[in-house]
Amino acid sequence: MSYLQRVKQTRLAKAGRISPLIRAGLIAGVVIAGLIFPLVALAGVGAKEGADALQSMPEELTVVPSAQTTYVYANDGKTLLTMFYEEHRKPTKIEDMSPYITQAIVASEDTRFYEHNGVDAKGVARAFVANQQAGGVSQGASTLTMQYVRMALRDGAKTPKEALEATEQTTARKLREMRLAIELEKRVSKQEILQRYLNSAYFGHRAYGIFAAAEVFFSKTPKKLTLTEAALLAGLVKAPSAYDPATSNQREATERRNYVIDQMVKMGSITATQARAAQKSKIKLKLTTPPNGCPSVPKKHNDWGFFCDYLRNWWMEQPAFGSNAQERLENLRRGGYKIVTTIDPDIQASAMEHILDKEKKKSVYAHGEVVIEPGTGRIKAMAVNRRYSLDQSHNGEHSDGRRRDAVRGNYPNTVNPLLGGGDMAGYQAGSTFKIFTMLAALDEGMPLNTSFYAPQRFVSKYITAPGPATCGIHWCPKNSTASMTGNQTMWSGFGKSVNTYFVQLEQKVGSEKAVKMAERLGLKWRTEVDQTLAGPAHADGWGAFTLGVSDATPLEMANVFATLAAEGNYCEPIPVRVINTRDGGSLEYKGKKVAGPRCHQELRKEVALAATDAARCVTGYGSAKGNCGTWETSPMVHAILNRPVAGKSGTTDSNRSAWFCGFTPQLAAAAFVADPDNPENTVGTSRGTISKFTVAQTLKDALKGQPKMKFTPPSAEIAYGD
Predict the structure, then answer these.
(1) Among residues 545, 530, 559, 532, which one has the least CA distance to residue 438?
(2) How confident is the model at residue 52 (pLDDT cuts 50, 70, 90)?
(3) What is the mean pLDDT of the segment spanning 350-376?
(4) Which of 107, 93, 69, 325 is nearest to 212 (CA)?
(5) Side-chain half-sphere exposure of 489, counting CA atoms within 13 A
(6) What is the pTM of this model?
(7) Residue 367, SS3?
(8) b vs e for 11-29, b when ≥16 Cβ sit within 10 Å of the residue's Cβ?
(9) Quick one: pLDDT band at residue 2, thresholds 50, 70, 90?
(10) SS3 for 362?
(11) pLDDT classification of 156: cutoffs 50, 70, 90
């Protein structure tokens, strides 16, 4: 249809002789066709060619949601831990914006916004004349709607080529914007377009959208923007860097702001009196740098960084967030999620207090603790005597003399995952590993009263290389004190941590089954040595496994004992309680909530109850069924808690690390002390008990005011083999 034919039909449409829908389309078509001539003339192409190109363009704008900021909260859903973003943006409804900002943006960018249908014919003609006179592009003709279309096309680009096509200075791009702008205004109200624009525009300083701009420049919400603040922000959109008020020279920003205010007067949005007062005022900023990522957690709660780091690593492993780690990280930084985590600020603070009471941040020794909720796997605290920071320039000397000249130590500042969840192997966990041998034996039907005579030194069946713990070709472990010699059961052997009893128990059940039990309860082998020894070719000869020569993380060990507390119900450690999508819905994957507990009955209930009864002997609480003997390794734990508690202590050869894992029916915790930079560096006997006190004191604080829940006693059959 020719241009004259369109004009004729449009006159009929205006006379009411054509349906309203056809009428709107014809009017829009005439406007577009009429605008082709100045545009194509400027571009040097024929009118017919331009018209054909326009008609072939898509009519409907496909809007891809813009990148939005992900907010991460503590378990109360209110305490902000940090945020993740590529473009700091939080969508805001227009009713939650100050009227000044909507007025200012229209005055600044498109004074005829409420008069045109997406394309301003007068503006196009004016720009055409100006550009013809200038011999180039000196003036644009983009309406607010067209600008929004350009933003939407840019944000929806799937390739660099598409992104370039959305922003390059070409007639084809301008024609496409015009076509889409007119079609968009048929489907969407002016207020909706204005809202979308203000949520998409870039204001500088990594602030995308009006919410971020109000926060970054004035530390307030868009609802509270004043006239002068709104005019300043509206003026930034044209050239955020050139008019940036945070630079030392604010002259350009002031002139631009005052221009916007003048435009608001011309539009009748404000009075001349208001304008004069506003233009006299100086720019007053209250700059905010929104946190981004784990290094940006609040300074006074810097210890949250290690939990945040675990959350980030966990996220990158979840298939619900993408097909690979990079895609998942991008989703975290662009997805606009609200993540309510599991960390309890009070329990975290208590753990940090007790940790720092015993080992300061500037110590080469890391003293840390993880607290987990049985039955859910929710991580309540991840605390360590370090600062989560990338800046290690002032760190202490490396504790390994061979590396001292090359690198600094990882204290007090580090981002290493000292508590679990990353690629660190962990630390040798000593006699805490006896729990796996005992569980394997119970699982195979051996009762708690299984008895062996435990000598001071035992010649095992396991073959090992010559060394101080060998008798010819055999491995010959010994007990730490002569008082352990004699007949022992699982109750007394576990309570006193009798090495020679547990090696015999391991021989009877098979070390490969103890290794398998550890794997069933979540342990992963991260060193080449551990992977080799845990493999099928060597596991049945790994006698030293029961004494904890393998590495484990505090997170893993806390969850092992949380499984006992939950009576055999294994729950995957999880750092999230709620994950809401940008539209407010709960995120699901394959029909299940991503943030929900992931649990299954890994141990038979009677096995877990029996192991718990033996673990009660360790803490001084005493078992329900058996004889713990005349002493135990960790009596201070029950003395401090004064409630039902079980657990296991563990130290390695030469005291290279010292652990304690403790649990009540409500909470489980694991604490350690070791040198993560140099595993050969011994912690000394003075640090041998600090993990016991840390766990006991943290659990006492965390459970204050809660009922003293009791453990369920095991059956007589699994206790005595009846």
Answers:
(1) 545
(2) low
(3) 97
(4) 69
(5) 23
(6) 0.89
(7) strand
(8) eebeeeebeeeebbbbbbb
(9) very low
(10) coil
(11) confident
d(CA 651, CA 499): 12
Residue 110: closest CA among 246, 223, 267, 222: 267
**pLDDT per residue as tens digits for the range 70-86:** 999 999 999 999 999 99
Q: Identify which of 346, 340, 387, 381 has the alpha carbon closest to the alpha carbon of residue 366.
A: 387
Q: The dihedral of CA 498, 504, 509, 510: what is its sign? A: positive
- How far apart (Å, rounded) are the C-alpha atoms in residues 695 and 370? 9
Comparing CA positions, the residue from 501, 375, 513 lying closest to residue 448 is: 501
For residue range 670-701, list pLDDT tens digits in order. 999 999 999 899 999 999 999 999 999 999 99
CA distance 309 to 722: 49
Of 367, 366, 365, 384, nearest to 305 by C-alpha is 384
Q: Is the peptide bond before 412 cis (omega within 30 degrees of 0)?
A: yes
**Structure-token pair, residue 448:** 């708690």
SS3 (DSSP) at 366: strand
Q: How far apart are CA 678 and CA 407, in angstroms?
A: 13
Nearest to 377 by CA among 443, 314, 303, 301: 314
The runs of H, that is alpha helices, within 366-498 are 434-443, 490-496
Sequence length of the chain is: 722
C-beta of residue 613 within 8 angstroms of C-beta of residue 449: no
Per-residue pLDDT at 158:
75
pLDDT digits (tens, 9 = 90+) for 111-137: 999 999 999 987 776 665 655 555 554
Q: Left if phi > 0, otherwise alpha if psi is -120 to 50, otherwise beta: which for 486?
A: left
Query: Residue 9 phi/psi, 5° resolution?
Result: -70, -30
